[in-house]
Every structure is written in structure tokens, then in C-alpha cells.
Fold this protein.
Amino acid sequence: MTAGIPNSSTSTAPDDEDAGRLPAYVPADIEPRWRAAWETANVSGSELADGEEGTYVLEMLPYPSGTLHMGHVKNYTMGDVITHFRRRNGATVLHPMGYDSFGLPAENAAIKTGGDPLEVTEGNIKGIEQEFDHMGWSIDWTRTLATHRPDYYRWTQWLFLRFFEKGLAYRKDAPVNWCPKDQTVLANEQVVDGACERCGTIVEKRSLNQWYFRITDYAQQLLDDMDLLEQWPERVLTMQRNWIGRSEGAHVSFHQRDLDQAIEVFTTRPDTLHGATFFVLAPEHPLVGALTRGTGNEQVVSDYVEAAAKLSNIDRSNAERDKTGVDTGRTITNPATGEEIPVWVADYVLPDYGAGALMAVPAHDERDFAFAKTFGLPITRVVASAPGAEDELPYTSKEGVLVDSGDATGQSTTDGARAIVDRFEDAEFTVNYRLRDWLLSRQRYWGTPIPIIHCDECGVVPVPDDALPVLLPQVDDYQPKGQSPLAAAEDWVKVRCPSCSSWAKRETDTMDTFVDSSWYFLRYADSQNGHAPFDREVVDRWLPVDQYIGGVEHAVLHLLYARFFTKVLYDLEMVGFREPFASLFTQGMIYKDGAKMSKSKGNVVPPLPTVEQYGADALRLYVLFLGPPDQDAEWQDNGIGGTRRFLDRLWRYVHGVARLEAAGDSIVGSPSLDELRADATAHELAAAAHEATKKVTADIGPRMHFNTAIAALMEATNTGTKLLGSRADDAPAIVDVSHRYLAQTIVGLVQPFAPHIASELWSVLGGDAVWAQPWPTFHEAYVQRATITLAVQVNGKLRGQVEVAADIDEAGALEAARANEHVAALLEGTQSVKDIYVPGRLVNLVVRPA
RNA sequence: GCGGGCGUGGCGGAAUUGGUAGACGCGCCGGAUUUAGGAUCCGGUGGGCACUGCUCGUGGAGGUUCAAGUCCUCUCGCCCGCACCA
């Protein structure tokens, strides 16, 4: 025995020691013992040899609110299986874990209990560490991080300053999403169905001066580099593509006489310019006031603008709603026709898409059509499916020819668009994106302080690198009140300007927590670095992440932000790769009683009590056995009993095998094929071992179908148990050797899923350190039997089975099939049409009545 | 409306390439053990029937093929994402 590996006999209760009785499987006895052994053996260490490229397996880090739930258990167990599997196939694997520990839940919990967010967070982390400990996941804890600790957020601030220097972090006045409950602004990505992603409150619009990341600069790269993401689920790529919302079209400037000013619109249909019969501004458009002045419509328009501002996002974006709007009393010149067309203000025009204004072509756009009908505005057809066709309006198809469109008349819509854009100086083709810049500032306490100083003389001044971290100050009141609680820390706010040394004020907003989690995967690779967030050389050896696993709910949040950060860091030459996650797996959720597990529904199954009752190994197996890992699954209380019974059966089988004297008392090599061919039972056992190896290897590796891998292990255990039960007292030695071989193969294969029991049973079989054993290899020769069973079909229907020699030829197989009594009877009085022979599988005799 | 995905026993799900549909587990039924219950172990378990066998059967309707859960056409239902995006 090597140091640190406990003796398995300690699990044997005294009254089990008499001969003939097996020690009982008591997970609580063996599991802590083996976890201690792994720690001593440094199983989870991840040190690279000189010149070695590492393998990086990563799961999305938890938010430390309360305890872990079954979704985490599934997520981290999947990552753990892959970690062990790759490790045993020779890779050095980085498998780290940390805490995404800034954010609203801890802060709100602290406000509720009158506590301190820091204490609440650190307390939660302590509790979760307990849970991590009990699950036996192989995690390199020497690399752990928590985003709320200064040794981490110092570098979040440092990275912010690099973005600031590049003009990628900036401040602007803009309409923003405001959550009235959490009293803070939100990013577009954090508004779901018009409501705050965190608390579900309907968000309001406010015009505020806020900090943004210029993610829109990277819109096209974020789309283009999806080519590198072959190992990502199509669903996630589609969601990101929709979110970025690229559309090709043209900018066209319309001239307004009274203001003598051009107003720009974006259109995807420049070919329909001649059909623009009116013009619409968003209520928030900056020219609304100036344009209306002196028309007599001032009051009506300003009332409308005010009403629009009060509408919730949900009401505003409801397409079913009747169109509303008001006439400004002004006109604008259609550059194609030279006609003066009326300018309206309407809330179906969104302020933050395109130019916040549009040319309305009611004949060929449903929304413009509805608006024209409501307000009696003219409708002019400029596209027809064929020359002269009187299509029903609105005719919105892009297929067709232009009519009544000046020189472009008769051209296809595509050619016409080009001709029209070419003709007018004030029109040019352009690409527009739906993606907006990422609003990163928050008016809340529990977040990374933005390292900026506001000076009356110098303006916005970055905190110098050597003054980082800007520590989060202590405050007495965390209550959100529309401005950051940090503003109350007057001593902290008041600071000398780094540039001119006069008194200045610190920025009091904090960063969105998604900033923290946009680079954590880089820090793990170089977590102890004290002079930089990470070293490029080190990071390039581990990243991109080989396998990332997490929930699909982050498709347009974390996963988009992390891609953006990586691209910026690539451009800053801080990393040598453009995509952070080479392969992404999105796991399904675990439901119970048809609903998501939640405290309010009372259907939560907490991990720790389940471990106490069934053992960590049974729970690990069960969450993966539930179904394909990318699908949602229903937790069934009885189900985990099934995986526990499997472990009990495996335990009995391995202990039974360990007592077979003829099998020896240590790990054996593969029995020779010659020996196996002499004994059918021995051959069955060795074949079962190899079949399981083939299935489990393929299921963990390329397919990630852990449920069927576990099923294969159950099957192999059932085969072994059955053959051990029917073993004759005078069985030849090769049978016992084969039992030992099957037992050690199953234990070796089950190790990534159930590492505790595997460690124990491996030592019962006389081996050391199952976690360090090479992964079993599959050999086809072992599963090939002397005889095989062929299915016999007559006219495609199964009519019998025949046992034939494995190396039989087609003629022999057909003969054997016809010789089958039942088949022969069916063939009587028929004439052969065709014989089909699929080697190793079946014979199909196609006949017709004679 | 646009995009992505899914429909197989009482339930969760299997079936890498078209080749014996229902692996594995839950549940259920029977047996052993037990004073009993529970637990455990062993066996059975898609439906129907004139039950050594036949027949129906992968949401539905067609088609291709010797052979279809798998390929093609149409269709029904469910889930998820985006959506007044010009």
C-alpha cells in the first residue's frame, strides 16, 4: 500500500468479520476516508510539465446564495466525470472552482436581516464549501477565487482601466432600464419580457448618465467568430445571432426645410423609397421639440411624448396594440419624389434602433400600413410581384419588380435598391445591429467599485494602477435609494485628483456582476499572480477552455460578455486566442413534480441530506442516469434507490470475486484469448468487460451520454452477478480469473462517476489508486464469440433465430436460415424472389406464392 | 411572425451507419426471506388474441426500400428563444 491509502478492512464492522459474510456497503464509512486519501495523493493538482499543453474542464461558478441545488450537483458531476476520464487518458487537467460572489441576492439578504453583505457572503461560501467537500468532486482548490475579494476585484478594476484607455468603457446620457424595486439600472440583457431578470419587477425607462462597454464595436466579430464555435450547441449560437440582430440596409437622409437640417433613417428596403408617403420620429428623437416649435401642435406633441415615456417596455413593445401617434405639423422632402411628406411622432418607432426615425412605406410594411389606415395617410404601391400586378396591400415580400419608381421602374427590387442608393448622395448601404452597448454601472453597494475619480478641473480621471484596488468602503446603510450607497461614505468619496491634486470625488457606482464573471476563467489559470490579472504565457497553455458546462440561461448574458472580453484582451495582446470556450455543453434543468425546484413550491431536494441517506456516489450516479444531460429531467424520489441498489450489487459482486481463491489476490492482466476460447463462461465474462469498456468510453468521450454509460455498467454488473451465482464449485481457474478481470474493469470504468466506492473496491481487489490507473482499452477480439445468433426474416418479418458459427459465409447462413423448422414451414409453397444477408445480423428471405 | 428543439410502454428513457423496437432504471405482478410490515434478494412485465404462435405497435397520413423510430413529402401537438428591430 502506498502512503495515504487507507486499508479497506477498516470498513468491516466487527460482526461482519466471520467467514462467509460480506462487509456491508456503508457510504458514510468509506467516503470521507477516500476523500482524505485523494487529498494526500494530490489527485486534483494541475501542474504542467515543461512545454506541456493543459486540458481545461470548467463549469460555471456558483453564486453563493444559500446552498447548492441539484442543478449544481448535475453540472459539477458532469465536469468531474470528464475530468477523471481525460486525466486517466493521459491529460493534465485543470478543474477549478470559485464563487461569483458580488451581486444583489447577498446584498438584499443583508438588508433583510440587518447584516453585512460581506458576512452573509462569506457565511454562504463556508456552507457551500461543506457541500463541495461531501460530493467528492476532484477540484483544484489551490486556484479558487471569489469575485468579491480585493485580490480578485483589484484586477477587475485593472481590466476596466485598460478598456477605458482604449475608449471601450465610456459614459453617456441615454434612456436606460431602471428597476424600481432594486433601485438600479440594468443592462438590456438583464431585462426579460420587460421585467428585471433578478426580481421580476417591470422596469421603467429613465434618462441617466451611465457607464457603458462598447460591445457594439465587436458586433461583427462576435458574429464572424461563431465559425470557431463548432462545438457549441446550435441553440446558443442562434440566440446570440438573434440578439446581435444584424440587418443589412441603407442610411437615407431626408432634408427638412424649416430647420434646414437633414434627418437620417435606417431602412432595409431602400428600393421602396418612392413609396415613402410619411415620416415618423420616435418620441425620444432629439429633434422632436425643435421641429414642432411654432406649428401650434406643441402641446399635443409634448403630451404624447410624455405619455410615451410613462409606458412600460411591455406595453410599448406589444405589437397587438393599436397604433398611436401625433402629427408634428411639419413636412419633410422625400428625396426620390421631391414631394413634401408629413412628419409624425409615434411610439412604434424605437429610440435605440437604427436612427430612431423611419421612412414609412405603408404599401410594403405591415406596421406602416396599419398606421396609415388609422390616420388616413396616403398609400402608394411601388413594388409588385410582376409588372402590372395588383397585389393585395401591404405587399411585404422582397420578391418583385419596382413600379412607379422613376428611373428604377421595372427593375427587380435588388437592382432597384442598388440604383436608388447610387443615385442619391444622401443614401448609402450600411449594416445595422440590434445589439446595444453594455450598461455596466449599478447604483448598488455590493459590487466592484468603478476605479474613476471625478475632478472639477480635469474631468473624468482614472485611478492609477498602483492605487488599486479601490476598496469597497464600509457603510452603515445598504438600502438602495436611487443613488449608490457608496455616496454616503464621505471620507471615501473625497479624494485628491491623481492628475492635479485638487479635491475631487470618487465614482460611487459599482460594476454589474457580469463584469466579474467575464474573465474569471483566465484568473484560474494564474490565480496566484500578484502583479497582473494573469500572465499571457501561462494562460495560453491552458486556454481556450476545452470543455465548458453550464445552464443555457446565460446564452446572451455571461456567454456573450465573456466572448466580448476575450476579443478585447486578444486585441490588447493579453491573450493569444479569440474565443474563450472551445466546446460548450448546456445542461438541462432538474424538475420535480413538473416544476422547477424552488423554496416557494416546497419541492426542493437538498443535496446534503440525500448524500447522508444514499451516499455521494449514488447521488452522483443518479443525477446523470436521469436522462440525456442536455435535456430537462424529472427528479423521482424512488429513482435514486435504483442507483444505490446498483452500487450494492456491485459491492457484493466485487467482494464475492475477491474471495475466489483461484483468482489470486491482486489486479490481473487480460486473460489470453486461447484460454478464454476453451471456456464459454470465461469468455462471456471477458466479453462483458470489453463491451462495457467500448460503450462507456464512447459515451463519456465524444457523445457525453452519461445515462447510457451507467446503463452499460449496470448490465455488466448484472452479467457478472448472474454468472458468479451459477458458478460451479469445480469451475476452472480461468473462470475465476475472468471474474476478477470483469470486476476490476467495471470498477475502473465506474471510477469517474462513483469515485469513492471505486477506490474502495479497487483496493478490495488488491490494487492501489484506481484514479491513477490508465483507462481500460477495448479489444474487438474479446467480444467475438465462436457462434452468433442471426435473426431470420421472411418478407421482412421476424420469424426465427438461428445459432451459427461466427465466421459463416452467405451461403451457409442462408442454408441455416432455411433449415429452421418454423421458417421452413412458412417457405412451403413459395418461390424465392431475393435473399438478403447482413453479416452478423440477419437474413431476410423475400418470397412470393409459387 | 422568425429561429431552435422535441413527440417511442404506466413513468424516465435505449436503439453511433436504415438491419431482431423497448437496453438500463422506476413502477407493477409473482416468489424467497420475515411473527407482520418495511427492507433485501430472485424471477416476470408494450397492447390484443383462437397464446409452442399470430397480430398490432415509435403523434397522424402518404412515400422510398428486401427492410423505416431512423430517409423523403404533407400534417397535428408540445417546449424554448427572439419579436412594432423599420
User: Anything to note?
Assistant: The CA atoms of residues 625 and 711 of chain A lie 8 Å apart. The first helix of chain A runs from residue 27 to 40.
